[in-house]
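Whiteboard transcription, Tuesday session. T.W. wrote the structure tokens on the left side:
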């Protein structure tokens, strides 16, 4: 009997504890227990003070303007779209200012905005600009934006909760939040249960709101899915969308975006139900996801722009500010994260932001540790991955990326074994990214342009091998999603960093193997990028390997006579229709070079083929009547044969000083690149440098001695 009483008491206490915590506000990023410490921190720590001042300035600006809650009518980037975004941002700023300053005017502003929404929300139909009913929101043209609105707004409500009267809270909850949660979980159930970033935003909005409003049923639904069977919901999203290394299958750009709902919901779960140990889940996977997101950026702060990526997105974005602050304060205080926080130039005015700002002020930061690594893709880590090779300090780092991961669902591009190269804090061999002008209403309403499918996703738009002018998997998502490349070799030796991967399904009868290496050679200041692209087949094919480049063409081993007028498109479909053929040269000795000048530094790409070689100089812009495509140039290695090897060595050298009008080491040091042998067992290259002959060898069947250089 005593045992039974104890069990009942424990259950009652646990329930009472949850209920009591749910009635304690604020309770999310900023908690009531830390308000006094946060106020003191604002006065003591420069980054927190600066961050709070930015928030307060935004709040003061909002208070000085009329409250406007327009009937939704505009698409992305339009007036009503931007006004509703501004409203949730202003509410969160004002609510934060209320907690730090104690001035009720800020809470009153939030109350007025929320009551305004509550008086209108249930009258609004699905958004008139929605492209299809399944994706339609009520506040925004896309329901995704409604989910984002709620995540920010519920934080604001939590911060001002105690400043509102019970009648105002009842009105806001019954006429705004409860209808919103019903809309999200019932009308948008298909999205709620979707294993996708849209689903993540939806369920996080529902779960966080469930905690703040003390509606536990919504919390359980968010964590375990609409059927509460664990097949969908928050935990299923973590299980299926992230690899064991914390890589998000849609790529770095969408990893950055999806992180915010993941980490915010985790923070809420940890605050309300610490017994769930959410930050320990899947071997601290959320911590890995934040670190991996940072590792998939270059030292100029931009994310590697693979798949549907907006190229100028950096880790200064709000999602990574939240992520870095929470990773440091709530999961593991890795001091190199403080370097990222310093570069972000702000912290969230919150419990986590307080700790980050305090430790920065104490001088604990060290430079962020960018690493050479292979990041596994797929829920079980079995779907290939991303190979990243790095050399040099953060201030001037060479970085090579080999894309050998999964398709990335609908946002994925058809660029198996695509290559990116960075140096001198800039792109050398870039990726196009997405064909989209985000939230610019005059460009297709801010959505994806038609050229995203006709060009940006096509293989030819990337530094990847194209066979018979046809994109990988014929540019079809389902067969591409069904298979992934495989890692053959990875090495992180100080003088020989290598990644090699195989793709055997992109074409019916062609197996592709690409091996990229950063190789240090005595006498050269910078390592060489050695890139070998091999294709094996039983039939003859046309092989095209483009190298999209940034900078200016300053040197070639062959005469360039570009067409002055009467340009023709390179082809009729699969992205070729968008390329102008500017010049073409057949190289009798199957070798050549192209020299570039990029950001006052020289790059010479030496290349060779084992079949007759043609070099084509192309540029973007054909068949683009609305001028939607962004400028770009490439040199393309083209050949015909059964088996094909393209080998290249990119040499970094010299530079220019435009102020003093000086030039150093404008000519390359390497000469006589040759493919000595290339078959299914080996590829052997040779080249000369300072009178010495070097040999680079790939042994495809020898995993112990896969690559050698001597």
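and on the right, the sequence the group agreed on:
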């Amino acid at each position: 009997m005593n045992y039974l009483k104890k069990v009942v008491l424990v259950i009652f206490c646990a329930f009472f504890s949850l209920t009591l915590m749910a009635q304690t506000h604020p309770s999310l990023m900023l908690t009531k227990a830390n308000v006094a410490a946060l106020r003191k921190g604002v006065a003591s720590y420069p980054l927190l003070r600066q961050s709070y001042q930015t928030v307060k300035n935004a709040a003061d600006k909002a208070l000085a303007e009329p409250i406007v809650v327009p009937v939704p009518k505009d698409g992305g980037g339009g007036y009503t779209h931007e006004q509703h975004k501004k409203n949730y941002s202003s509410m969160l700023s004002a609510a934060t200012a209320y907690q730090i300053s104690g001035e009720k005017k800020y809470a009153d502003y939030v109350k007025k905005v929320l009551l305004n929404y509550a008086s209108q929300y249930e009258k609004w139909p699905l958004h008139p600009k929605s492209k299809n009913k399944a994706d339609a929101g009520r506040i925004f043209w896309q329901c995704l934006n409604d989910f984002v609105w709620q995540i920010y707004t519920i934080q604001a409500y939590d911060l001002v909760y105690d400043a509102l009267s019970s009648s105002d809270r009842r009105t806001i909850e019954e006429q705004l939040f409860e209808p919103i949660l019903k809309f999200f979980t019932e009308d948008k159930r298909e999205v709620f249960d979707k294993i996708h970033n849209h689903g993540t935003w939806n369920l996080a909005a529902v779960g966080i709101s469930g905690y703040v409003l003390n509606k536990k049923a919504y919390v359980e639904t968010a964590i375990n899915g609409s059927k509460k069977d664990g097949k969908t919901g928050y935990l299923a999203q973590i299980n299926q969308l992230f690899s064991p290394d914390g890589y998000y299958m849609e790529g770095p750009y969408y990893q950055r975006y999806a992180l915010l709902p993941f980490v915010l919901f985790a923070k809420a779960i940890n605050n309300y139900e610490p017994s769930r140990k959410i930050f320990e889940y899947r071997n601290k996977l959320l911590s890995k996801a934040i670190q991996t997101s940072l590792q998939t950026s270059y030292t100029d702060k931009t994310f590697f722009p693979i798949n549907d990526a907006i190229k100028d997105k950096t880790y200064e974005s709000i999602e990574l500010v939240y992520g870095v602050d929470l990773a440091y304060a709530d999961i593991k205080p890795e001091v190199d994260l403080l370097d990222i926080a310093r570069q972000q130039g702000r912290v969230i005015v919150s419990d986590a932001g307080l700790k980050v700002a305090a430790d920065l002020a104490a001088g604990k930061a060290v430079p962020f540790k960018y690493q050479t690594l292979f990041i596994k893709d797929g829920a079980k880590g079995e779907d290939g991955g991303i190979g990243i090779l790095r050399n040099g300090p953060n201030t001037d780092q060479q970085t090579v990326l080999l894309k050998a991961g999964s398709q990335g669902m609908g946002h994925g591009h058809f660029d198996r074994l695509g290559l990116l190269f960075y140096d001198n804090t800039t792109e050398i061999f870039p990726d196009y990214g997405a064909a989209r002008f985000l939230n610019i209403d005059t460009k297709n309403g801010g959505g994806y342009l038609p050229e995203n499918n006709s060009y940006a996703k096509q293989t030819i738009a990337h530094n990847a091998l194209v066979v018979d002018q046809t994109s990988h998997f014929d540019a079809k998502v389902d067969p591409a999603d069904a298979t992934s490349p495989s890692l053959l070799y990875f090495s992180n030796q100080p003088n020989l960093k290598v990644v090699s991967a195989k793709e055997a399904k992109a074409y019916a009868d062609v197996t592709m193997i690409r091996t990229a290496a950063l190789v240090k050679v005595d006498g050269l200041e910078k390592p060489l990028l050695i890139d070998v692209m091999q294709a094996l087949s039983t039939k003859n094919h046309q092989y095209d390997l483009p190298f999209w480049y940034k900078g200016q063409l300053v040197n070639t081993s062959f005469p360039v006579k570009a067409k002055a007028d009467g340009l023709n498109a390179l082809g009729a479909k699969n992205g070729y229709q968008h390329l102008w053929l500017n010049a073409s040269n057949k190289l009798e000795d199957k070798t050549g070079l192209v020299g570039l000048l990029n950001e006052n530094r020289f790059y010479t790409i030496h290349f060779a083929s084992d079949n007759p070689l043609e070099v084509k100089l192309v540029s973007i812009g054909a068949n683009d009547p609305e001028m939607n495509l962004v400028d770009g140039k490439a040199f393309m290695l083209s050949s015909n044969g059964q088996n094909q090897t393209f080998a290249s060595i990119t040499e970094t050298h010299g530079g220019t000083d435009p102020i003093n009008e000086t030039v150093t080491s404008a000519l390359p040091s390497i000469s006589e690149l040759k493919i000595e042998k290339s078959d299914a067992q080996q590829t052997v290259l040779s080249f000369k440098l300072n009178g010495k002959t070097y040999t680079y060898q790939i042994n495809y069947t020898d995993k112990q001695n896969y690559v050698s250089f001597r």
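Someone added at the bottom: Residues 1-22 have pLDDT under 50 and may be disordered.
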